[in-house]
TrEMBL record:
Motif (Interaction with polymerase core subunit RpoC): 45-48
Annotated region described as Sigma-70 factor domain-4, given as residue ranges: 188-236
Alphabetized InterPro entries for the sequence: RNA_pol_sigma-70_dom, RNA_pol_sigma70, RNA_pol_sigma70_r2, RNA_pol_sigma70_r3, RNA_pol_sigma70_r4, RNA_pol_sigma_FliA_WhiG, RNA_pol_sigma_r2, RNA_pol_sigma_r3/r4-like
DNA-binding region: 210-229
Name of the featured protein: RNA polymerase sigma factor FliA
PANTHER family: RNA POLYMERASE SIGMA FACTOR FLIA (PTHR30385:SF7), SIGMA FACTOR F FLAGELLAR (PTHR30385)
Keyword Protein transport appears in the UniProt entry: no
Main subcellular localisation: cytoplasm
Subcellular location: Cytoplasm
Protein task: Sigma factors are initiation factors that promote the attachment of RNA polymerase to specific initiation sites and are then released. This sigma factor controls the expression of flagella-related genes.
CDD domains xrefs: Sigma70_r4
Length: 244
């Protein structure tokens, strides 16, 4: 065996060791995502996609990266799972349409009044019952409606400013756009009502699921779902300038 062959063999062995050692990370990320998704999503499909992400991470990782392998692999695994969800979009177009309609009314009311639009105002303008309105908020939480920057084509988004971004694969222009968007999103979140800000922080920064947030706030899981959905709709309304 020549030197090149020996080097490639060592690389393969190192990659195999990384995959075996970090395989539990795939399961952990899959079940964490499942806490935010409806029962129709198959956790097995997520784990299969995540294993592919882990394999790619093991093959491409170099020790000169600033991040540890676990951090790098976590981004790749989660990205692969999100790609799988995007590829098999289970969200009906009607759901996207209703959320867009609610967000547009929220935008109109807030522009007219200069204050946070409340549920009663939105329901009255749309002629919605409380049950219908809360269903839209629930759909906003469970569906992939976090892409505040993509065209409203009725198909949903292909990404989210709330997703983890692998900055190693962004060009200078894309990196600048992502940083600018992240700053704009952070600013928009800071303008949300306090309870909505808290739910967003617990959900995306502390990575608690809806049930855990309910325990923190002393409310039901369904109420947390409504608050989260209201925050997403409000963000969609306030980030309208970022959509294509």
């Amino acid at each position: 065996m020549n030197v090149a062959s020996e080097y490639l063999q060592l690389q393969r062995e190192d990659a195999d060791q990384l995959v075996r050692k970090h395989a539990p990370l795939v399961r952990r990320i899959a079940y964490h995502l499942m806490g935010r998704l409806p029962p129709s999503v198959d956790v097995g499909d997520l784990m299969q996609a995540g294993m592919i992400g882990l394999l790619e991470a093991a093959r491409n990782f170099t020790t000169d990266r600033a991040a540890s392998f676990e951090t790098y692999a976590g981004i790749r695994i989660r990205g692969a799972m999100l790609d799988e969800l995007r590829r098999t979009d289970w969200t009906p177009r009607s759901v996207h349409r209703k959320v867009r309609e609610v967000a547009e009314v929220v935008r109109q009311i807030e522009n007219e009044t200069g204050a946070d639009a409340d549920s009663a105002q939105v329901m009255k303008r749309l002629g919605m019952s409380a049950e219908e309105y809360h269903q839209v908020l629930s759909d906003a939480t469970s569906a992939r409606l976090l892409s505040l920057t993509t065209p409203d084509d009725g198909e949903g988004g292909d990404g989210s400013p709330l997703d983890v971004v692998d900055h190693d694969n962004l060009g200078p222009a894309d990196s600048f756009t992502q940083e600018t968007l992240s700053a704009a999103l952070a600013e928009a979140i800071s303008t949300l009502p306090k309870r909505e800000q808290l739910v967003m922080s617990l959900y995306y920064e502390q990575e608690l699921n809806l049930k855990e947030i309910g325990l923190v706030l002393g409310v039901t899981e369904s109420r947390v779902c409504q608050i989260h959905g209201q925050a997403l709709v409000r963000l969609r309304a306030r980030m309208g300038d970022w959509r294509g």
